[in-house]
Structure formats: C-alpha cells, structure tokens
Write a structure and sequence with these properties.
Layout (H helix, E strand, L loop, with lengths): L8 H23 L3 H39 L5 H10 L5 H55 L6 H33 L6 E5 H11 L1 H6 L3 E4 L8 E5 H18 L5 E8 L4 E8 L6 H4 L11 H7 L5 H11 L4 E6 L3 E10 L3
Parallel strand pairs: 2-4
Antiparallel strand pairs: 1-3, 3-7, 4-5, 5-7, 6-7
Amino acid sequence: MFSAKNFSPQQLSAITASILAVVLGLCVYYFHPIWWIALLWLVLIFCGSYGLILYMVQRFVYRKIKLIYKLIYQTKASKREEFYYKNILPQKSIDEVREDVEKWAEQRKAEIEVLKQNEAYRKEFLQNLSHELKTPIFAIQGYVDTLLNGALENPDVNKKFLSSTSRNIDRLVNLVDDLDEISKLERGEQLLYKENFIIQELVKEVYESLAIKAEENQIRLIIKKGCELPLTVYADKEKIRQGLINLIDNAIKYGKRNGEVEASAYKIDGSQILVEITDDGQGISEEHIGRIFERFYRTDTARSRKVGGSGLGLSIFKHIVEAHGQAIHVRSTPDVGSTFGFTLDSKKD
C-alpha cells in the first residue's frame, strides 16, 4: 500500500484527476446512458484535470519549494542545480522534501550549538588569558612603582623587590612562550624529531629532575612493579619529556603528603605502548574531567594559581600527543587519585 503522504506530484494529480473523471463520467452516463460517450468524457476530463492539476502543483507549490532549496544552500544555482530543480525535485514527494528540510534544520541547529559553545569557550579563554597576564604585570608595576618612590635607595628592600620583579617577568615570558608553542601546535607548524628511546629511562630522568620538589612534598616517585622491563617507543623524546615533566609536576603539586607518584608502561599491541602516570592525591571530580585539557582551565582556581603554572601544560601535551597521531586520557576519583595515560608508537626498525 502507498502512503498518501509519499505521493509524488504526478501521482497526486493522477489520483485527483481520476476521481473527478469517474464522478463526472458517471454523471454524463446518468443523463446520456451511452457508454462510449461517457468513456470519452471520462478520458477527456482525466487528461484535462491531470494536466491542469499537475501544472498548478508544479507552478505554485514546487516553485516555492525550489526557492526554499535555494535559500537552504544559499548559492546561485549552477546549470547542474537548475537541472536538478527542474527535473529531479518535482519528482520528489512533499514528504521527501519535508525530510530534506528537517535534515537541513537539524544540521543548522547542531552548527549553532557548536558556535554557541565556541563563543562561550572564547569568552572564557579571553577572560582567563586576561587574568593570567594581569597578575604578573600588576605585580611588576607595583614593585617598580615602589622602587621609584624611594625604595630603590634602601638596600634591604631594593634587591628583594627586583628579585620579585624578575620572577614575575619570567612568569610572563613563560606564559607567552607557552601560548606561542600551543599556537604552533594547533597550526601544525611544530616539527617532530622522532627517535627510538626507552620510555622508562626517560621517566627516571624526569624523576631525577623533580626529586627535590618531590622530597619537599614528601612524595615518593616510583615505577610500578612489573613495568621495569624496558619498552622502546618511537617519538619526539624532548617533547615527550616536556609532557612527562608537566604530568609528574602536577601529580606532585596536587598529591597528598607522604603519598606517591607511580609511572607504568605497557605494550598494548604490536605497534603501541601505553604510558600512565598515577597519583593518590585529591583527584578530579567528574564535572571537570571533560575540560581539563582546555587552555587555562583549572579545577581549583585559587589553589592552582597559588601553586603556579600557566594553565597551559595539559593542553600543550594533548596537542603534542595528537601530533604523534596518538591519544591522551584521564581517569580520576575524588580523594582517591588520578591517572593520566597516553599512547606512543613502539620501536621502529
């Protein structure tokens, strides 16, 4: 059975014309009961009605639909599109046209939602960037003004203020450098110099560089038992070092005292190595998990700024991992700890 809503203009015109022809043909036969005359009238009425109805539908209905399609695609029709509008579109049922319009509307709705999200993200990013820049700038301004207003002549104060000014300038420079690096990564301009190296040895080097900070926080840096077997990866060693420093440094910052940071590496298949950094610190709540790799996003704004950092480290490392054609993920439970993991290609011959 045909669904009435799926009739094409030709089918709709034929059905309507048939009904008119049969009704009027019966009327003619009733007044002039000669079958061939009634049949002749039936054929003439059907042909005339069919042509008139089809013309009206295509002229006044599908002409409007053609305009709707042009507005949807927002282009001046090419010869190919004109052929489509003239020959293919009129063959479509009204229901098929409705489905096309609904599909287009859903696509536009999705695009609008993405634009709204991007706009909200842009506003938040600019707000965070402004705050990150203002903090060291205002500090520098305050120290310099104090020095110019007489503190420069006081040897007990001037060196302290100049040292604080220098630290804030370093913070500002690091922030600009991080922004420049993440911009290059997003544009694909950051080149990768891949080589074979043992991932556990790189982890140990990073542990050594952060040993003093870990001791200050009374945190042990270890490699998980069973993961000591050397695994060779093929990646940009210095960029992976940069990422590991960021992950382990964060684990130390937000880890609990007398806790531990544990590194592990697994061969998950013949071509990939999974590297994970686990801590037993405060963890991350579920509402923040999906956003921690965004630029400047902080789960605890007050504490994060207190412990330092530009807020770009995780975002930079995510781009580095993705530039390797790999993925990074995080698992976390509040008050239990967090695990950051990423994959790398295994050794290349």
